[in-house]
Amino acid sequence: DAKTTQPTSMDCAEGRAANLPCNHSTISGNEYVYWYRQIHSQGPQYIIHGLKNNATNEMASLIITEDRKSSTLILPHATLRDTAVYYCIVRFCHVNWIY
């Protein structure tokens, strides 16, 4: 599995976009970038994931560089409620689609 490195802490202004970088220079071609966050003593919460293309949902956007060696999680309007530990994880994706 690819190793990831992230800043140990970041400050951002409330109401502004928060950009959280992640380096994953040893990523392989079929590994996905996942972002989770953990607030206080709660369990980890899934935010977003992507393979090659950028992704956006109601919580955040994920920008993956063309060489896939790094990515940035963007929280468009950060608030105090977004204060958490954010985890960038690289792993294979196994999804069972349920219809």
From TrEMBL:
A biological-process GO annotation: adaptive immune response
Alphabetized SUPFAM superfamilies for the sequence: Immunoglobulin (SSF48726)
A Pfam family assignment: V-set
Keyword NADP found: no
Keywords noted in UniProt: Adaptive immunity, Cell membrane, Disulfide bond, Glycoprotein, Immunity, Membrane, Signal
Annotated compartments: Cell membrane
SMART domains assigned: IG
Protein name: Ig-like domain-containing protein
